[in-house]
Write a structure and sequence with these properties.
Length: 91
């Protein structure tokens, strides 16, 4: 699956964003992502796991970013910076 295809799927970036703060259990992750159904959450987690961006910690049943997933933060930091500038301009 191409990176933009995966990251463009609904909720994918939000899940990665939430995991950027550290390991999170599925229930807590769903609560942080207002309005996401559990079926979509688990589908996105399966896709992110298959892509090597997320790891499931079986010992405490939480999800966390892999080193590759963490490196994505540096790749999208310019987009986050642009979004802040755009929002501040009144859009």
């Amino acid at each position: 699956m191409a990176a933009l295809d995966l990251l463009g799927r609904r909720w994918a970036l939000r899940i990665l964003w939430e995991l950027g703060e550290g390991p999170v259990g599925a229930r807590n992750l769903r609560e942080r992502c207002d309005g996401m159904s559990s079926s979509v959450l688990y589908q996105r987690l399966r896709e992110l796991l298959a892509a090597g961006l997320v790891h499931h910690r079986g010992d405490d049943d939480r999800y966390e970013l892999t080193p590759v997933g963490r490196s994505l933060g540096a790749a999208i930091a310019p987009l986050e910076q642009w979004a802040g500038t755009w929002a501040a301009s009144g859009h």
